[in-house]
Write a structure and sequence with these properties.
- The complex is a heterodimer of chains A (450) and B (372).
- With 450 residues, chain A is α/β, with parallel strands linked by helices.
- Chain A is built from 20 helices and twelve strands.
- A five-stranded mixed β-sheet of chain A has the order 3-4-2-1-5. In chain A, strands 9-8-12-10-11 form a five-stranded mixed β-sheet. Chain A has a two-stranded antiparallel ribbon with strand order 6-7.
- Chain A starts with 17 loop residues before the first helix and ends with a helix.
- Among the domains of chain B are: 7-105, Ubiquitin-like (UB roll) (Roll); 138-220, Alpha-Beta Plaits (2-Layer Sandwich), CATH 3.30.70.20; 229-300, no CATH class.
- Chain B has helices at residues 24-31, 94-109, 125-133, 168-176, 208-212, 283-288, 324-327, 361-364; strands spanning 7-11, 14-18, 57-62, 75-76, 86-89, 150-152, 156-158, 182-185, 192-195, 218-220, 233-238, 247-253, 256-262, 296-300.
- In chain B, the strands form four sheets. Chain B has a five-stranded mixed β-sheet with strand order 2-1-5-3-4, with helices on both faces.
- The radius of gyration of chain B is 25 Å and the shape is globular.
- The relative contact order of chain B is 0.09.
- Classes of the chains: A alpha/beta (450), B alpha+beta (372).
- Chain A binds chain B through residues 168, 170, 185, 190, 351-360, 362-367, 370, 387, 390-391, 393-395, 397-400, and chain B through 50-55, 57, 73-74, 76, 79, 98-99, 102-103, 105-107, 109-110, 139-140, 142, 164-165, 167, 183-184, 186-191.
- Chain B: Residues 95-134 form the 4Fe-4S His(Cys)3-ligated-type domain.
Chain lengths: 450, 372
Amino acid sequence: MGVKLLLDKAHVEGIRYFDVYRREGGYRSVEKALKEMTPDTIVEEVKKSGLRGRGGAGFPTGMKWSFIAKPEGVPRHLVCNADESEPGTFKDRYLMEFLPHLLIEGLIVSSFALGSNATYIYIRGEYAWIPDILEQAIEEARANGFLGKNILGTGFDCEIYVHRGAGAYICGEETALIESLEGKRGNPRIKPPFPAIKGAWDRPTVVNNVETLAAVVPIINMGGEEYAKIGVGKSTGTKLISACGNINKPGVYEIDMTISVEEFIYSDEYCGGIPNGKRLKACIPGGSSVPILPANLLLKTAKGETRYMNYESLSDGGFATGSMMGSGGFIVLDEDQCVVRNTYTLARFYRHESCGQCSPCREGTGWMEKILKAIDTGKGKMSDIDLLWDIQRRIEGNTICPLGDAAAWPVAAAIRHFRDEFEWHVLNPEESQRRNYGLAHYADAREVVA
Amino acid sequence: MSEQQLFKVTIDNITIEVAPGTSILEAARKIGGDVAPPAMCFYSKLKGSGGKCRTCLVEVSKGSEKDPRPMPKLVASCRTTVMDGMEVKNITSERVVDARAGVVEMLLINHPLDCPICDQAGECHLQDLSYEHGREGTRYEFQRRTFEKHDLGEYIQLHMTRCILCYRCVFTADQLTNKREHGILSRGDHAEIATYIEKSLDNDFIGNVIDVCPVGALTDRTFRFKNRVWFLKPVDAHRDCPTCSGQVTLWYRGDEVFRVTARKDEWGEVESLPDGTTAWICNTCRFDKKHTGDWVIEGPRKISRHSVISQGHYVGMHKPEETIEKVLHGRKPRLMMDIHSVSQVNQPNIDLSQIEGPAHSDDFNPALPKKD
């Protein structure tokens, strides 16, 4: 049983309500932070903890906080990014639905650290029922003196507002989120200036993921150095993984980043193996935009070392033979899944969600989707595979925001690792409509013939 | 201001000193020529424009004197400010040329390429761009995106199919006019320029969206299908206009004024007035004053740079070699057929159905006796 810092009280009955949460030791970190610590010491603790952003990029949170500009007389803002729209990721939903007070607690401490008197939770529109839960939690916290004017008599004022998005994936990108929060069209801004200098309403702004802000609570409670002892290397603390796909036990798991990928998929404590006695074909380990990995490269790195569930190990080998931790959306594909169809589905998603601002992403995502559809339906050509590669190469890195990269990486990785399956689709257009390719090139030779 | 320290920036091995805060693109434009990256969405007169089309991507091979690390990604030169000692590669970088070719290809996949019937042809930035960086064929084999044409008021037509979503007109409508009725609907490749709830844009300065549009998506309805721009002769003129500067270019064919536009500089942007403001023109000047008598003529206007307008009166252009001999450096090719004019084939006295087998040049040469 691994260490649990965020979800240890998730199964206590009524933990959603303030009384139970408080009885179970909640809001201790607010008392400690506001009464015993200064904003600078909190940032210092978070830096010591080595906490990395849980939204996908994995940028050190303490460092991000220390970048915030502090001009005289200009208000600063903390924005909680709850626009969790990455396909395969649903960890924040679980956290907000069952432990809303953990997020509120983390937000109060973080707001104090950053000097934000008006803090926003930007939640995706599809989570229609969660804003009510959060607003109820905010009301309870206010009634008990943890929010509003003069919190706990320390003179610190803080209000938390819940802002509902209108259903755009792109608004999970921090500058697009800020635009949307301001009431504009959710187009990503061109950086620089970064939000830490000029964010919402041109004021210094920090945008953090739900899980990141929730993780601030254990860091304050136990101290940054203690927190850093959990985990391995630069992957400190615990991470929520939302596992889905062909596994026996899909769900949200809290791991301490020292377990191996193999253990995570096959042990009964976590995913519980693959149902119906099927074998593992591939896995997208960090949400739809990270590169897909075939089974042989997933369990062991290219050097033959065991791959672990942490930031460094998952990205070992770069994009050639590795992937990314991403947002923790762990999607498992068994031998019955078609990589071409899967890639097409993702390409369709990115085409639909591209904001249409910069040309490579706007036009390229649509083009890739059409080619992938043609290959998937048996109308592809061999040259289409190279064309796809060429298109993704010209999208990647040439766009304003990372959505272009996110659209290009899955296509690139699918072609890199499963080119034979794409070619099989092209060469056997009719057969590919009737059955799946099965396991890829590392499969048993007898099966490929059959 | 004169005391201000200037930044040294090297673009394609040419060093120039510019004021801090200048963008790489503007610095490159000061050098001019091929060093200036193309820009489809950036418009120096519109605040907030740029960064979207990605044609102006450049490679920064040295960040600055203090921090000489190169930037890992290509950057949009229109929105990146120069640092002291920065080294930039534009056309000398293979990465840039490749990325730019990619952007041009992407811009063209959903463009209808209806240049032969497009009013913008001849002064179209996308045409210029694709001549320079495009490929001869397309690799796109799917149906192109199309939209219905819309009339935005009595003067402007929106042909969304041609639009490359540069947002220039949105910024124009935002910054020049006082009520915003013009924006973007939808997202991704189905995004479209729109006036909210089909409102027509009846503002004094809205005609300027025609001038800022880099392609033929927004066209002048009073000029629509009237003439090709390269048959027209541009003449600078002005009038005493109560609403705008009244400084325009008239486009003549014979004695008739076919259209009126603002004066554009060599980058296709509306020129600045001596007081630093931009010489936008009002709708009255643009659409209603089409008689020579309304204007005080200043003189002919030279159109510089690689635009196709102005009937061969280009500045700094290499004319293509005219004869095959010149093209082949003096070698005389042996001609396979001596058909000199296609029109000869259409001579009604020769009935093609009477000729047995493939037609030969002799069949069309009346000087030779007919073979029987």
